[in-house]
Write a structure and sequence with these properties.
Length: about 425
């Protein structure tokens, strides 16, 4: 079917030129509406993509908060080993536990926001290290409490040692002073050499008791502050030898000496400080062992904390990569959508111009030009031209019908003229 036939079929309806122009105007508006609708759809998809990106922002902010909490934990955990009071330990432990629980809650929330993407990849490691750190801190707290008990026991032993040192000095000084005084008096009264020798021996024993007591308290004082486990045993052996000599010297003191009972009490106290279940030596040895145990544990805790931070950073990097990919894909999609809108708009503009041109040219101008040619031909007495727009029911069709009548009249006039 030729274009002319299609064109004739399109325009043989009982439609006026005005209505055909109205139809063209409506078609143009429809194309504009299509373009506008496409633009609205594009903006809607753009907003949807932006909302997806915005919805990802809480995940990024949560990971940043987890990293911030990890940095605070790194600063707080090493300080636990220096705590020496139950109240301070409880306060710092609660602070660390609260931060760790907050970190775990945020991590759990991240898994709930996008479980498929993150939970199966990196969150198990983060959760594992976080749980391990919580368990290690719990046992570390118990060990710290044990260390505090040992320190408090040593502090109590130190008070007892200070008291007994003053008592022992106060009890032995009169004995040595009396023995020295009796020796001086014996020398002045010219006593027998045997008596003077006995008094001199008594003075020597008293001074030895005083010196051994000072040595004993010095050994205990040293053990209280000794920082090497290997050095405790030699101090303990020296203490045993000294306490044995001290008791031997006490046996040589006159039995009637009233101060002997008091001195024995002080010696028993010092002996108890060195040989009981909570002796200075055992307590210090346990304290040093406990300190070493805590140092080893704090290394493990730090390693776990570092592993947790590394896992969180890996999660953050993974989320950042996904965010970058999402932004890149959104930008590509938006660019494609924008290009599609431009293409649709240009196509609509072209179709609009073409539709207007088609309607005006084929529906109006082309037909008028044909009528013009027919009218010029009729003016030149050329009556064989065909009037094509006969039968149309629009304004141009009516002009064609009128021209056809005019042509018929011309033909009649020609026939009449020829017969005259």
């Amino acid at each position: 079917m030729s274009f002319e036939k299609i064109n004739k079929q399109l325009w043989t309806k009982n439609v006026s030129v005005k209505n055909k122009l109205y139809f063209s105007f409506i078609a143009i508006n429809v194309l504009l509406v299509i373009s506008f609708t496409s633009w609205i759809a594009f903006k809607s998809s753009q907003n949807t993509m932006r909302s997806i990106t915005i919805n990802m922002m809480p995940v990024t902010e949560s990971v940043s908060e987890v990293i911030s909490i990890g940095a605070r934990l790194n600063a707080l955990i090493p300080n636990l080993i220096f705590v020496r009071a139950n109240e301070d330990l409880e306060r710092q432990y609660q602070n660390i536990s609260s931060l760790l629980q907050q970190q775990q809650d945020i991590i759990k929330n991240i898994g709930q926001q996008d479980r498929d993407k993150y939970f199966d990849k990196l969150l198990p490691d983060v959760n594992k290290y976080s749980a391990d750190l919580a368990a290690q801190l719990k046992t570390f707290k118990r060990d710290i409490l044990r260390l505090i008990e040992l320190i408090q026991q040593q502090e109590e032993n130190a008070k007892i040692l200070t008291d007994v040192r003053f008592k022992f000095t106060a009890e032995t000084s009169p004995v040595s002073d009396d023995a020295e005084f009796e020796l001086i008096m014996g020398l002045e009264s010219e006593k027998l050499a045997k008596e003077l020798t006995k008094q001199a021996e008594t003075l020597a024993r008293a001074l030895e008791i005083k010196a051994e007591g000072s040595l004993l308290t010095g050994i205990l004082e040293t053990a209280l502050h000794y920082e090497e486990v290997e050095g405790i045993a030699p101090l303990e052996e020296r203490f045993e030898a000294t306490i044995e000599r001290l008791r031997s010297h006490l046996q040589d003191i006159d039995q009637s000496m009233s101060a002997r009972i008091l001195i024995n009490k002080s010696v028993n106290i010092m002996d108890n400080l060195g040989n009981s279940e909570k002796s200075i030596f055992d307590t210090q040895r346990n304290r040093l062992h406990q300190m070493q145990k805590l140092h080893n544990k704090i290394v493990v805790i730090k390693n776990t904390d570092f592993l947790l931070n590394d896992a969180v950073k890996a999660l953050a990097n993974h989320i950042k990569e996904d965010m970058d990919i999402l932004k890149l894909n959104n930008e590509k999609t938006l660019n494609m959508g924008g290009n599609a809108i431009v293409f649709v708009s240009l196509l609509s503009l072209f179709l609009t111009v073409f539709a207007g041109w088609f309607v005006v040219r084929n529906g109006v101008i082309h037909r008028i030009e044909k009528l013009k040619l027919v009218m010029l031909a009729l003016a030149d007495k050329k009556l064989d031209h065909l009037i094509e727009d006969e039968g149309y029911h629009d304004e141009i069709g009516q002009m064609a019908d009128a021209l056809s009548i005019f042509k018929e009249k011309l033909i009649e006039n020609e026939v009449l003229t020829a017969n005259l």
